[in-house]
Amino acid sequence: MKIAIGSDHGGFRLKEEIKDYLRQQGVEHTDFGTYSTASVDYPDIAQTVGEKVAAGEFERGILICGTGIGISIAANKVPGVRAALCGDVFSARMSREHNNANILALGERVIGSGLALMIVQTWLEAEFAGGRHARRVEKISALEK
Questions:
Q1: Which of 72, 76, 113, 120 is the most exposed place for a label (fewest CB within 10 A)?
Q2: Is the overall model pTM greater than 0.90, yes or no?
């Protein structure tokens, strides 16, 4: 699995922890910034990661900002992106199984790194259930047209 990952300055530290976790798990990933805690605009990072995932260059993406709210809103403006802001393990699993979320959004300032890594692990392991959920995801895609 190939993961595109990015954050703004408010999510930089958690992004670095997640990258370490991905390396330990042998998960291929590419960091699309930011590369420090210097202030940047989260829509720019969300757009880059969103476009890479939507184009199929990466199977999934992970985005982090201070709360996860802004970066998830921005990512969801990219056609083909289904970004889910998750602050718990159950939501992470459901976002994959029921919504086929292709981007996970997290908030560094609202969850600790231990929980964040459990969310990432759950989200990466979960698979789309298909069935009745496929019809619903297709309707989401139709809203983009």
A1: 113
A2: yes
